[in-house]
Every structure is written in structure tokens, then in C-alpha cells.
Design goal:
By secondary structure, the protein is α/β, with parallel strands linked by helices. Helices cover about 35% and strands about 20% of the residues.
């Protein structure tokens, strides 16, 4: 064999080795790796962007979201529903998942915070100008709240308790407001929808709910810090995820500066704020 032929053979062999060791794209038409994220309904808009960015950074991965009230998601997990990541709107529902063995103790990380705000239809049919207006009898049956079992509903009751202890509102404020409730929704997005559609004259939702597309569709009355509740959102991989590495990668992405910027863009407070 001549030296030239020997060199050509070596070059070809090296090229074959390099090609075999290089990362290979998923075959055309192959099914993507699906990552299922159970996420609180209030995260819907932010998660749509987070999922898209994560997919762009992980070719061949499809992120599928299951949105509902956190208590509904915790119950689904408790009943064995398969999934990879759980993002809750409060620690209590994450604790349910831990107690049922679906999330490992110590795994949850706080990734966002939120606040409550009062909203009303853009034309403000009830003429609301102040938080105390929530107790007006004209609002009877036209106030929509999240159900008490939903984190937003629990936070709303805490706000009403604080207000009722404030002389500016009076001890009967909570009872008067609750008597005006026409419906209690299973997730906060449903409550917002009723206000946007004019089916309710007022509602109490998360501030993040009116930071995006709904910002121009409703008016709002801010709840001062002294009366408000700062909601903390935890996230964790599901213990029996079929894709544990990918689940952890998604959690890490949400906690990353890029993920935190996306959440802030959609009206959430950063976990470190």
C-alpha cells in the first residue's frame, strides 16, 4: 500500500469515527419527547412562553401543560395521574403532592410570587372606585371570587379578614363582601373571564392575570400591601417522572435568569424579590 493510500484510509476512518460520535438529530417523523407540566391556571400565559423557549433550547422536546386550580392538580397527582413537573400557586397543595409521594420532600423551589387585585369590566357598570365598594348592596350576586379551596380563594379570605380588622372597613366588611358573591370559581382564570365578559361587576384575581392581554380589558383597584397577601409559587419535578433529567432541566430553566425574566414580563414578582 502506498503512503498516499494509507493517508486516505486514515482520513476516512477518522471521519467515520467523528460522524458516529457526534450528536444525532431525531429522525424525521419520530415522536418528540413529551414533558408534561401540571401548572396553576394563573401561570397559563407565562408558561406558554416558558414552554416555547424551553422547546427551542431542547430540540425534539414537546412541553405539554395541564392547567387547573392547584388543588385540582394536587388531587390528580394524588390519584396517580402521570406527569413530570408540578408548579403550584401555594405551598399547601405542593405539600399534598409530597404527602402522597408524588414529589420528594425538599425538592420544591419557590420560583415566583404574586399579589391580589380587584378588577371590574372596562365600562365599570357598578361605578367602583374604592375597596369599600365591594360591600355595597348593589353588587349583590355580581361579585365573582375564587373558591376557598383554590389558593386565590384562600388568599382572598385572608385579605377580607385583614380588612375587617381595619376600622376604615369595619368588622362586618368580610361578611358584606361574601354576601355579594354570585359565584365561586374553581380557578382564578375563570373568575377573570366572567369579569372580562361582563358577567360579573367585580372580581378578585391575581395581579399577573391582568398584566398581559387582559390589561386593556378591565379596570382595577389596587389592594395595599398592609391588606394584601403575597402568594408564593413552588415548583418541583414529579418523583416518578418518566423523564427525570428533562423534568429537572425545566425546573432549572424556570429558576434561571431567563425564566425569571419571562415571569416578570407576565406580571409575577421574582422569587428573590
Amino acid at each position: 500500500m502506498t503512503v498516499a493510500k494509507l493517508l486516505i484510509g486514515i482520513i476516512i476512518a477518522l471521519a467515520i469515527v467523528a460522524a458516529c460520535s457526534a450528536p444525532q438529530p431525531a429522525p424525521s417523523g419520530s415522536a418528540p419527547a413529551t414533558l408534561t407540566v401540571f401548572a396553576a391556571a394563573s401561570l397559563a400565559q407565562a408558561c406558554a412562553e416558558l414552554g416555547g423557549r424551553f422547546e427551542a433550547q431542547h430540540p425534539g422536546v414537546e412541553v405539554v401543560f395541564n392547567f387547573a386550580g392547584s388543588q385540582q392538580l394536587a388531587q390528580q397527582l394524588a390519584q396517580g395521574a402521570p406527569g413530570d413537573v408540578f408548579a403550584s400557586a401555594d405551598a399547601a397543595q405542593m405539600s399534598v403532592a409530597i404527602e402522597r409521594g408524588r414529589v420528594r420532600s425538599g425538592a420544591p423551589r419557590d420560583f415566583a410570587r404574586n399579589r391580589l387585585v380587584v378588577v371590574y369590566p372596562k365600562d365599570n357598570p357598578a361605578g367602583l372606585v374604592d375597596l369599600r365598594d365591594l360591600a355595597r348592596p348593589e353588587l349583590r350576586g355580581r361579585l365573582v371570587l375564587a373558591a376557598a379551596a383554590v389558593p386565590a380563594g384562600e388568599y382572598t379570605l385572608a385579605f377580607l379578614d385583614k380588612a375587617s380588622a381595619d376600622p376604615r372597613f369595619g368588622a362586618r366588611f368580610k361578611d358584606a363582601v361574601l354576601s355579594n358573591a354570585g359565584s365561586y370559581e374553581e380557578n382564578v382564570r375563570a373568575a377573570l373571564s366572567k369579569v372580562v365578559l361582563g358577567e360579573a361587576f367585580a372580581g378578585i384575581v391575581y395581579e399577573s392575570d391582568v398584566a398581559g392581554e387582559a390589561a386593556n380589558e378591565v379596570g382595577r383597584i389596587q389592594i395595599p400591601d398592609a391588606l394584601n397577601v403575597l402568594a408564593t409559587y413552588p415548583i418541583a419535578p414529579i418523583a416518578d417522572s418518566a423523564r427525570p433529567d428533562l423534568a429537572q432541566a425545566f425546573v432549572d430553566f424556570v429558576l434561571s435568569p431567563e425564566g425569571q425574566d419571562v415571569l416578570a414580563k407576565h406580571g409575577f414578582l421574582r422569587a428573590s424579590d
